[in-house]
Amino acid sequence: MRRWVGRGRVLAAGIVLSVLAGVLALSGGPARAAEGQVHTPAGAQAIAGSYIVLLKPGGRPVAEVAGALAEQHGGEVDRTYGAALRGFTLSASERQARRLAADPRVDRVEADSVVSTEGTQTTPPWNLDRVDQHSTVLNDTFRYPDGAGAGVTVYVMDTGVRTSHEEFQSRARVGFDAIGDGWNGQDCSTSGHGTHVAGLVGGATYGVAKQARLVSVRVLSCENVGSVSQIIAGVDWVTEHAERPAVVNMSLGGSESAAEELAIKNSIDSGITYVVAAGNEDRDACRFSPAGLAEAITVGASNPLDERARDWEEPGSSLVTGSNYGECLDMFAPGESIKSAHNALDTATVIQRGTSMASPHVAGAAALVLSESPNLTPEQVADTLLGRATTGVLRQDTLETGSPNKLLYTGVPPPAVCTVGNDTRRPVPDLGSVTSSIEVTTCPRKVAPTARVRVRAEHPVRGDLSLRLVTPDGSERVLKEADGTDTAADVHETYPLPDLSTMDANGTWKLVVRDHFGFDQGALVDWKLVLAEPAVGLPVVSSTDYPANGQPHGGAGVAGEFTFRPGSPVPVAKYSYQLDGEAQPTEVTATDGVATVTLTPEGAGRRSLTVRAFNGVGEPSARVVYDFVVADQPPPASPVVSSFDYPADEHPNGGAGVPGTFTFKPGDEGPIDGYSYQLDTGTEPTEVSATGEVTVGIAPDAAGTRTLTVRAVRGGVPSAPTTFSFVVAGAAETVDGGMLAVDGQEVNADIPADRVLRLRFDGTAGDRLGLGLAESTLDTFAKVWVLDPDGNPVSTKENNAPSYFSSNSSGGVALPELTTTGTYQVLVDPDGAGTGAVTVLLSSNATGTTDTTEQGHPFELTRSGQYAEIGIDAEADTWYNLGFTEPSDRFRYLWIEVRGPDGTVDGPWAIQPSQAVRFHAGEPGRYRVVVGYYFAESPGSGKLWLSEEIDAGEITTSGQGTALSLHRPGQHARMRFDGTQGQRLNLGYTDIDLSTPGGTVPPKASVIGPDGTTKTPDRRGDSARIPVLTRTGSHDLVVTGGAGTGTVTVWLSEDVPGGTIAIGGDTTVTTTRPGQHATVRFDGTAGQRLNIGLTDMTSGFDNQSVRLYAPDGTKVGYGGNLTGADSFGFDPLPVTGTYELAVGPTNGQFGTVRLTLSAPADAGSITISGAQATMPIDLPGQDGHVSFAGAAGDRLRLTFGDRTFSGPYYLTVLNPDGTKLVDRAYRTDDSPYDLPELPASGEYLVIIDPQSAATGSIAVGVERQ
């Protein structure tokens, strides 16, 4: 209702005055005993124990005053309001509320009451056609301004909004939720009321303002019910947080509430336009809130017959309702048979009725007005809408007394036409004149400074003619004077009109053509007025870096490109753009109508870019507001996608329903939270959590080219997509290879290029089978799938992945127990365009059982791809070990898998027969060990040994070694120790007596951390170095002799820190436990070449290994089996920093050794056929080097002389690129050495490394062969 007329305003004022009077009258008694009035809105359904308290003006914060009042009078403060009004909501008893009402700090106490939506019944559909025209005859069109509400934010105060609905095109978001039941502003009502209303405001299909931003302010529950206090909370939030220009739609109502109306009035006074539903009680709207509020725009509902909508029958009730009416209404809008979005799905729609549906039409119209004129006040917005409304078309006898006969009108005035011509040919008589007129009626503006008139006239001598333009106000402008000297023919000129910019363009314009000289006559052919340039259309704004899809992109401080393009055929000369609240817009010149700018948002969150296009004379278009969301952090790089099963190679693979494994990897080094992926466009994206590489299984449901779109996600921000296209084989790409028979004849089949071989076999539930591929001649690797009678994969692998076979090799597939009886399929799919032949067999598994006491269970496999399946009865939570003996000669590698009673699978493992396997039985029951040839060799045999793992107790870094006795082949012993993150430990083995029929074998170890990850020690001889521990806690050390049995003693030790060593210096280190290592540190420079010399070791401690670790802990150098006095040269250091050098025994001993660290002795350079250069090697372990320049193709030899160190030495020659031309040639004399032909031109480096860390010198030269 209008704020300057109507009794609603008087009623509201009267209520407030009476309350104040009551408060003053009650404030004189004692504070403790006095009670004031608690107001309950007439006809309202009060909420027991909930009250709305309005405070008098004051300087203290609301929260502080509310807390003091609650403490003094009792009750609990639920929510405070500070923007729309000063007040709070209180949970209290009725007596506490009355006492609070008497407090002099309190203005009013009102009982909280129920508020509900306005109309939800479903009736036949109707569209938006009515509101864009004055006529009652519909024309099947809906026209709206170019801006379509762009730049305006409409707050939908309702049951919430399904913001993901396709109607909203990513323009909808959640702002506030007063209900607090976990729905977070989304629409959970069965009627979809809030979503329907939002669709009418700004939906792409059903909305009035199709480009407006929509914000959900949820104040009603899933049952379409709320309280006045929740309404006030919503109003308060909007008042504080509104993005202006702003409109609020309230399709809700309840009994009169002075508190609610005061909050809304104050919000309107802050500059926000409110549109409210009149209500559906078929009564006077002035009796309800917020419909009775004078300052809001109150809207009643009309029907398709241009009547006040009424006679609504409620299902299951005799109640007949209709739109409210009366003086508090401002206008009517369609509210019956209205189709819009529904919250059931992102594509759902529904038909509803009620003033709830009428109000959003007007809210959308208000957004259209504010998009054109964003600085209008709410009163001016209302004036504009009422001024445009269609008057007198509603049936007066349906309106009831006092109702306005005004129907919403959103129509767009016809576009301005400021270019008008007259092409009627008019003769110009000799010595006479002619006048031609143009009536301009559709150019409602002043004449532009660029106005011009074009004239075409025929005459043998154009100098005879004069041209005068008569403007609508009767004044004349001389365009051309007669000129007797101009003897050319005809006039075809355009004349500028620069001095008419103060004149209205509309009116009658005249052109007078006069012939001033005799003898000739002519004609006016046509003339055209251009009084203003064509209006430029709205620009089109786009950005791939910051797309307007409601999702976060980029990041604060991350630059992005934005492109502006014309939105109409009118040429664009430039654009202006303004990011958020920048003081002034920035202009950019267009090239062929297009401009691209780079912007760097300084902060995260929702941002708005306002853009205008300008025509050639600088006249702007309406503005376009481009909303985008800046992420808290930059998006990750696009992921890397790959698949062995369905590679992106344009070749057919697999088949419809056949699963494949796809691998996603991060595209950069930054952390990620996961990925989202979508197969083609007809499916919903799937999300998977991951911090790095991940594999997913996807079964394409149809043949043909399929596209997988994958995004990495970090902090909720998706990367740019990676599209991965692959081809799924169909019937045309499948070769039928016939039937396989269990234990029957093999099938031989040829597979042409780009074809998939399909074989079939009849299987019975309970069958345990093995599939063998023998004698393959395929020239690429192949994938093999097995599908059950229903087309489901038969696999024990993660993601139901297929089995893989190398080219020209054999192999097998151990199938899980069949669960269905029927015909199965086997698909053999060579990679890419691979082709060749395969031989396929299907065999029953050889079965049996064993236990931990049997002296090896014998098994024999007689066919390619056959497996032995050996059952064991396991106890719960027990570690078991598997060992093998007596393998046949063809057994190069074993394939092993352990299948649990619950279907879980351990393995598979591929091991040599001399190795062993351990597995954990979590649950008790029958486990099955499946054993086969890794390469499907046949025939073959062996023995399987089952053992329980030995628990060998604790092992420490300071105690004695742990003696182990391993009695059965494959048996393991498990020890425990407490480790610390970052710790480096070592193993030493002594008293080794582990034997097999083929001889003694070394022990092997593994370390299992607290998190279950396994580390394999770096073993050299009888000692091993455990990789750095990554967790603190209890670790398991597991030792086995593989197939060997016997005894061994295991020692655990920490590194001995040996301090630092300088390049050119030495140090002595000492170890005290078998296998223990000592470490020293030094500072190195990237590219530096260094040597280590080992001398003066104690007796027995003369077999060493050396490891070099970079500053980040990675191993970058290793020298093993250094015997006695020896040396080792490291490759160039990769980075600058502090390195660690670890020295330890390879024979399980301990003792003392001297380390000398040196840089190579540089003898400078030599020339071909020049003098030799002498390398002085002064330090133990030091190398010497000298360089020479060589040309590609040179055949050279090195010469040596004057050697003073004894013993052999190693010769290395490096190419200019650092690769080796000669790699450690062993030299025992000083004879010349012929080099291979030089591969390139450049500087070559000759390195001499004396054996046994000897010192001395040697002379080196170079000559041609």
TrEMBL record:
<dbReference type="InterPro" id="IPR037045">
    <property type="entry name" value="S8pro/Inhibitor_I9_sf"/>
</dbReference>
<dbReference type="InterPro" id="IPR022398">
    <property type="entry name" value="Peptidase_S8_His-AS"/>
</dbReference>
<feature type="active site" description="Charge relay system">
    <location>
        <position position="158"/>
    </location>
</feature>
<keyword id="KW-0645">Protease</keyword>
<dbReference type="GO" id="GO:0006508">
    <property type="term" value="P:proteolysis"/>
</dbReference>
<feature type="active site" description="Charge relay system">
    <location>
        <position position="356"/>
    </location>
</feature>
<keyword id="KW-0720">Serine protease</keyword>
<comment type="similarity">
    <text>Belongs to the peptidase S8 family.</text>
</comment>
<dbReference type="InterPro" id="IPR023828">
    <property type="entry name" value="Peptidase_S8_Ser-AS"/>
</dbReference>
<dbReference type="InterPro" id="IPR010259">
    <property type="entry name" value="S8pro/Inhibitor_I9"/>
</dbReference>
<dbReference type="Pfam" id="PF00082">
    <property type="entry name" value="Peptidase_S8"/>
</dbReference>
<dbReference type="InterPro" id="IPR023827">
    <property type="entry name" value="Peptidase_S8_Asp-AS"/>
</dbReference>
<dbReference type="Pfam" id="PF05922">
    <property type="entry name" value="Inhibitor_I9"/>
</dbReference>
<protein>
    <submittedName>
        <fullName>Peptidase inhibitor I9</fullName>
    </submittedName>
</protein>
<feature type="region of interest" description="Disordered">
    <location>
        <begin position="994"/>
        <end position="1023"/>
    </location>
</feature>
<dbReference type="GO" id="GO:0005615">
    <property type="term" value="C:extracellular space"/>
</dbReference>
<dbReference type="Pfam" id="PF01483">
    <property type="entry name" value="P_proprotein"/>
</dbReference>
<dbReference type="GO" id="GO:0004252">
    <property type="term" value="F:serine-type endopeptidase activity"/>
</dbReference>
<keyword id="KW-0378">Hydrolase</keyword>
<dbReference type="InterPro" id="IPR015500">
    <property type="entry name" value="Peptidase_S8_subtilisin-rel"/>
</dbReference>
<dbReference type="InterPro" id="IPR000209">
    <property type="entry name" value="Peptidase_S8/S53_dom"/>
</dbReference>
<dbReference type="InterPro" id="IPR002884">
    <property type="entry name" value="P_dom"/>
</dbReference>
<feature type="active site" description="Charge relay system">
    <location>
        <position position="193"/>
    </location>
</feature>
<dbReference type="InterPro" id="IPR034193">
    <property type="entry name" value="PCSK9_ProteinaseK-like"/>
</dbReference>
<feature type="domain" description="P/Homo B">
    <location>
        <begin position="412"/>
        <end position="537"/>
    </location>
</feature>
<dbReference type="InterPro" id="IPR050131">
    <property type="entry name" value="Peptidase_S8_subtilisin-like"/>
</dbReference>
<dbReference type="InterPro" id="IPR036852">
    <property type="entry name" value="Peptidase_S8/S53_dom_sf"/>
</dbReference>
